[in-house]
Amino acid sequence: MQMLYTLTFLTEQAMVDPGGIANWAQDLMRRTIGPLEQAFMEIRCPDGGDGGRREDFYYATHEQIHPTGMLSVVANLTPWSDHNQSPCNMYQCQVL
Q: Which family does it belong to (predicted)?
C-alpha cells in the first residue's frame, strides 16, 4: 500500500533554519528553503569546495550565503570555533 503525503509550509518562517537561506544560482535572488526541501537540492558552499558531490553531478542549483550559514546564530557566536576541537558547536544548531 502506497501513501502520499502533502507537506505545507504555512509561513515563510515555518520549518526554516539559517542553513535554509540560499542564493538562487540563476538570478541571485535570496529565498528561504525548508529542511525537507534541502535534502533534494545541490547546495554549494561559497568556500569553493565541491561539498562531497559526485564527479558526474557537479552542478549546484543553490549556494549558501556564508560558509557557516548551515549553523545557527548561537553556534556562530561560539568563540574561536575554528580552533575548537570539540564538535559541540555543530550540535548547537539543532538544540534550539
A: Belongs to the RNA polymerase beta chain family.
- Per the DSSP assignment, residues forming a β-bridge with 24 are 62
Residue type, 51: G
pLDDT value, residue 33? 72
In the chain, domain spans: 18-95
Beta strands across the sheet bearing 21-24: 30-32, 21-24, 62-64, 43-44
- State pLDDT tens for residues 9-58: 554 444 444 444 444 444 456 776 766 777 777 777 776 665 555 565 56
Do the Cβ atoms of 42 and 53 come closer than 8 Å? yes
Phi, psi of 15 (to 5 degrees): 55, 40
Write down the pLDDT at residue 26: 45
Are 93 and 75 in contact by the 8 Å Cβ rule? The answer is yes
